C-alpha cells in the first residue's frame, strides 16, 4: 500500500463508471452505418469525436483516448511503478510496428499516424519491409526482427509477431521485479493469467492446425505467467488430446467446456474480461489499477468490433456476438 492509493482507486472507479455498458453497445449495434454509430458515441462518450475518412482514423482516435486515460492516472502513482507503466505502454509501439510490417509485406501504405521510439521519429513511409526494419536498428526491437528482414518466407511475419509478443511480456514481467510481493501477486492474478491464456491458445492451435514441432512450440511460448518454463515445456510436448485433458483439469477448463474448440481465442478473451472485472471489484491494491488497464483495452476492442461489424453489414445479433463481455450469448461454441 502507498499514500495516495485511495485517491488513485477513487479516480479509477469514477473513470470506470463512465465506461460504455452493454445497453450502449446494443444501441450502437442497432445502427446501420458507421456514421450513425459515431453520432451515438459523440453524444454518449466522446464529445470530440468527428467524422473520419476510414476505420483507421477511428483506431488512431481510440488509441489516443486510451493513452490519455492512462496519463490521467500517472500522477497518482509513486515512482516505483514508473517502469511498469512504461513497459505497459510499449504495447502501443508493438501494435504499430506489427501494422506497419503487415502493410509493407502486402505492398500497401501503412495506416499508422506516426511511430516514435525513445523520442525519435521512425520513418516507415516509402519504405520496404527490409528498410523499415533497418530503420529500427537503434531500438530495442531490432534484435527481435533482424533475422527476418530479408526473409521471403510467408511465415516470417508470423515469427516476427510472436517475437514481439515475447519481447513485450518479458519486458512487462521484468518491470515488476522491484515491486513488493503483494504487488507481484496482483500482477500474476491479472497479467499472469493473460499470459497463461495466450500460451494455451498458441500451444493448442499449433498442435491442432499447424502440426508444429514441440521444440518450436516451446520456443514461442511467453514466460512470466503462472506456468513456469518447465510446465510450458511439458505442455508443448503433450499430444493434442493430452493437452486438452490437462487444461480441462486446470483453472482454465472453461476454454474446452461444452465441446469448445479454440479457433479465434474469443472464449479466452471473455475469460480474461471476467477475471479482470472480478479483480477490479474485489481488490483495493494496485491490482485495481492493473485490472482497469485490461478493462480499458476491452472497452476499446468492443467499440472497434461493433464498428467493424457495422462496416461489413453484419446484423445486430452478429455484431453483439463478437463482443468481449461476460454475458450469456456473447460467444459461440467453438471460438
From TrEMBL:
Keywords: Ion transport, Transport. This is V-type ATPase subunit. The lineage of its organism: Bacteria, Bacillati, Bacillota, Tissierellia, Tissierellales. The keyword Ion transport applies. It comes from Peptoniphilus grossensis. The keyword Transit peptide does not apply. It comes from the Bacteria.
